DNA sequence: ACCTGAACACCGTTCAAGT
DNA sequence: ACCTGAACACCGTTCAAGT
């Protein structure tokens, strides 16, 4: 599967890191084969030694970025592990808003780092009495929520370019006619400190509590 | 803002519907200006009468697709309204898996249809005693989860091309070495009827319950 | 004034020429 | 055998020529 590294040349990891760096600096769309080749310092066609096509490049970028999420400690309850996991997703994507589109990339086999994280969480949940099957549901739900949250936040604040207060103001301003939508106007007017952090925490906490209830079933 | 429709030509809505049809039939990537022009039956450059650039086209597609979600009834509690809303998101995206990448498109002003939905949900939540500010958090959380769920499902089953049991089997097969990850292996082996529907329902229910708790605060 | 054909500056990828 | 330059078939968009 994995092509061997051409002698004396860059590694696959270095290529993926360079691609992530280009996305960080110039935007997700700027990651072209030619631009990446310039970044790495090799002729464009040489890059195909490290991936089959552009979809494979994106998948490699996504997996490489995900490895930064999997820095969880081995301590604590599964509840804490799940919250830390979600929090790491958020931290990484807030630090690198241009990586958000990678969430929509096709997936391949999970990396060893990913499996190590799942292993730890699954073990804790089973030890706590959760039905083994439900652990998969739990992790899927939390990961989905975290992904959707980041996607939605990027959508509303323009991929992290605007500060959060601006996002709220924009939301209010976008209301075409407050007269026709008094409920929306009242709700948005009452939010004077809207924060995606709060939405994120509310969601993760609610999901964890919902999962906890599965213990008795 | 909106360019006026050229006389005797197609409307903006028709262009967006045609774009959604192309995505449905040939895939999201196949929606090029030239392919869309052929679908509509006009010269490529004529399309720029209806949108400024490709990003605006994608935004128009997303908004148009979202209008299919906003078919909620006016009856029932806000809990039911939120669940119906999330369910509609799921139904539309499962019927049109090639539209999933639209979730990552930049957003513009919400359409009148979107506001009408929010209006209804906000009104119900406020009438039920929820703090007005929290209603925004609630809707954001549910919408984020629904989006993330569809994104994640599309990621795992290849944008709806594979049936769900296959998705589970793939998940298990992707485990590099079951020996090294007994917890993961046990958890996935115990899941003999993994269903994204169940994850979706678990998540939506948990989020709604988490929001309900805000009533007293 | 509005519409749109031709042209431009890209893009991902093929393939055969180089080594 | 492996690497990669040139070439191909696209792409979104500009712009000036048409009406």
Automatic annotation (TrEMBL), chains A, B:
DNA-binding region, residue range(s)? 32-51
Keywords from the named record: DNA-binding, Repressor, Transcription, Transcription regulation
Q: Which residues form the signal peptide?
A: none
Q: Which InterPro entries match?
A: Homeodomain-like_sf, HTH-type_TetR-like_transc_reg, HTH_TetR, Repressor_TetR_C, Tet_transcr_reg_TetR, Tet_transcr_reg_TetR-rel_C_sf
**A single GO BP annotation from the record?**
response to antibiotic
- Residue ranges occupied by any HTH tetR-type domain in the UniProt entry: 9-69
Give a yes or no for keyword Oxidoreductase in this entry.
Answer: no
PROSITE patterns on file: HTH_TETR_2
Protein name, per record: TetR/AcrR family transcriptional regulator
Q: Which organism is it from?
A: Solihabitans fulvus
A GO molecular-function descriptor? transcription cis-regulatory region binding
Superkingdom of this entry's organism?
Answer: Bacteria
Q: Pfam families from the entry?
A: TetR_C_1, TetR_N
């Amino acid at each position: 599967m994995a092509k061997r590294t051409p002698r004396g040349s860059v590694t696959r990891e270095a290529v993926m890191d360079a691609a992530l760096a280009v996305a960080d600096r110039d935007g997700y769309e700027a990651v072209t084969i030619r631009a990446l080749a310039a970044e790495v310092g090799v002729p464009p066609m040489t890059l195909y030694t490290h991936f089959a096509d552009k979809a494979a490049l994106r998948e490699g970028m996504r997996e490489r970025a995900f490895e930064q999420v999997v820095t969880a400690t081995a301590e604590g309850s599964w509840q804490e592990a799940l919250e830390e996991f979600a929090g790491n997703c958020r931290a990484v994507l807030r630090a690198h808003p241009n990586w958000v589109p990678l969430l929509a990339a096709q997936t391949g086999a999970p990396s060893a780092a990913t499996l190590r994280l799942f292993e730890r969480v699954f073990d804790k949940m089973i030890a706590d009495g959760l039905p083994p099957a439900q652990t998969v549901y739990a992790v899927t739900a939390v990961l989905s929520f975290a992904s959707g949250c980041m996607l939605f936040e990027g959508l509303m604040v323009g991929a992290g370019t605007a500060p959060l207060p601006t996002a709220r103001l924009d939301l209010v301003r976008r209301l075409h006619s407050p007269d026709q939508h008094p409920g929306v106007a009242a709700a948005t007017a009452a939010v004077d400190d809207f924060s995606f952090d709060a939405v994120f925490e509310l969601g993760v906490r609610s999901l964890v509590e919902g999962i906890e209830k599965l213990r008795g079933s």
